[in-house]
Amino acid sequence: MNKKVIGGVLAVALVAIVGVGVYYSSHSQSDDSKVAKTIDPTKVFEPKAPADMDFEVTVTSGSETQPMSLKIKHAKNGDTESTTGMSGVTLTTYIIDKEYIQCTADQCLSSGKIPERQQIPSANYAFTKEYILAMQRGSKYTGSEQCGKSTCAKWEINSEVMKGIFYIDKENRIVKIVNTPSEDSSTPTGTEAKTTTASPITYTYGNITITRPANVQKLQPATPSPTS
């Protein structure tokens, strides 16, 4: 399998892991109240928007025959570094100042600036305030649960844009998401369906800076074939 095909497969996998149906590609810059409001995460589902924070996400997902792993570093300025592993192949994707860069083991290629409204797979994890409000309409508090050294509020989300279990810490931050398992839609009719495993997604927060790799080459446009 050539590198272009592998890159395409892994880029599609980034979207498939989370199962987020809608992504608000414009970074939320809405003017909040001048006075920060205190939210009890056990009373209302309105966690802080990860899009506005530095964080790192770790995901394990996929099927029995095709496991996948994903690690994303997200800076609050919108830059990201995403490393995906699937079928023994690792792909690292950078988005730095809206420039899209993909790296394999021996080369990095830049596709240039991303159009304003183009979907960015790795940004699916950087939920904006608008996205959180859309999930809020299908939210149900189901109690508290231990998450690491803290106790988290546990919310079941069953909305048009997202289905899964969200764990919110005492600082009102998303620390874990477990997606609802889904059947493999590619399974042929009449055969036994294979269920995709639930996707545990964990968030950690801290200072994140994304550095552009040094060995980046500009992706050259394909040369048209000569006409006969």
The largest sheet is:
12 strands, mixed
The third-level CATH topology is outer membrane lipoprotein receptor (LolB), chain A
Strand content: 35-45%
Q: Indicate the structural class.
A: mainly beta
N-end to C-end Cα span = 29 Å
Largest sheet strand order: 7-8-9-10-13-1-2-3-4-5-6-14
Query: How many β-strand stretches?
Result: 14
Helix content: 10-25%
CATH architecture: Clam
Structural notes for this entry:
It is a single chain. The protein has 228 residues and is mainly beta. It has a single domain (3-20, 38-218), classed as outer membrane lipoprotein receptor (LolB), chain A (Clam), CATH 2.50.20. The chain contains two helices and 14 strands; from the N terminus they run αββββββαββββββββ. The longest helix is centred in the first third of the chain and has 16 residues, at 3-18. It is elongated and about 65 Å long. The model is unreliable at 1-35 and 183-196 (pLDDT under 50).
Features:
mainly beta; twelve-stranded mixed sheet
Could you give the topology of this structure?
Elements (H helix, E strand, L loop, with lengths): L2 H16 L36 E8 L4 E8 L5 E7 L2 E8 L2 E5 L4 E6 L15 H8 L2 E9 L2 E9 L4 E6 L5 E6 L2 E2 L11 E2 L3 E6 L10 E3 L10
Parallel strand pairs: 6-14
Antiparallel strand pairs: 1-2, 1-13, 2-3, 3-4, 4-5, 5-6, 7-8, 8-9, 9-10, 10-13, 11-12
Summarize the structure.
It is built from 2 helices and 14 strands, in the order αββββββαββββββββ. It has 228 residues and is mainly beta.
